[in-house]
Amino acid sequence: MLVAFVLRLAVITVGHTYRITPRRDHFQFGWEMGRVGAALASGRGFSDPFGPPTGPTAWEPPLYPYLMAGVFRLFGVYSHASAFVLLTFSSLCSAVTCVPIFRMAKRCFGETVAVGSAWVWALLPSVMFWSTKVVWETSLSALLLTTLFLLTLEMEDRDGLRPWLEFGLLWGIAALNSTVLLSFLPASELWALYRRSRRGKRSLGGVVVASALFIACLLFGFTGEELDSGPVAMSFWFCAAVLPWLYEQSFKQAAAISRPLPDLGQRGLRQEIYVPPEAV
Length: 280
Known about the structure:
It is flat, with a radius of gyration of 22 Å. It has a domain at 137-221. By secondary structure, the chain is mostly helical. The chain starts with a helix and ends in an 8-residue tail after the last helix. It contains 14 helices and no strands. α1 packs antiparallel against α5 (80-96) and α6 (98-109) runs parallel beside α9 (138-154).
């Protein structure tokens, strides 16, 4: 874990990845999350994901934009210092992810596979890219997902309410960070219940506690003065419910659009493709 963090920190420092381009009014500094974080830091509330004032938004879950807003307030909006802090935080999350990966692999496949899996995660360049170059919730989501996966596996061995408290709290935090992670929630809970039932352990009380804590996290994160209006609050719940499906559909549409056009000839192309005047 320490080696992974030092390597990522070295990439940020030596590669100057914290010097994010200011083009398009710093849009590459967190993209929509960066815009919402800047709006929060500027006192405009959870709004304006594309730059111009558009009012309250449900474009992104609230956790990471609020984290960015706190960093912006302390180190400056879109500053190099803010970028360094956020990338260092992502690198720390990515490095700590080695721990649940090791424990999951050791539980399922043995210590040899566990050590190799942890080292692959620590040294793989494509993993380091997301934590050292991109200001986004990716590394935090990876840490939450692997921790939840490990907790799901360990639920059958643990007794009492504490594991259920951890289960509900972690899933609540994961939902506030990235609604895409919720696609794993049904499988996670069903697997935990199935494995516990095979051991003759009761789970009804724990499920109630975990569900209550999960809902409390959602209510805490998805309410506030910027979400007082009914349509905006409902849009948050809508995103939490169907956003994974929407992502899948959008990728399918993007793939269909990116297919090469048939050879229609010069006259056919003029008839099939519309070029807006401002693009000429």
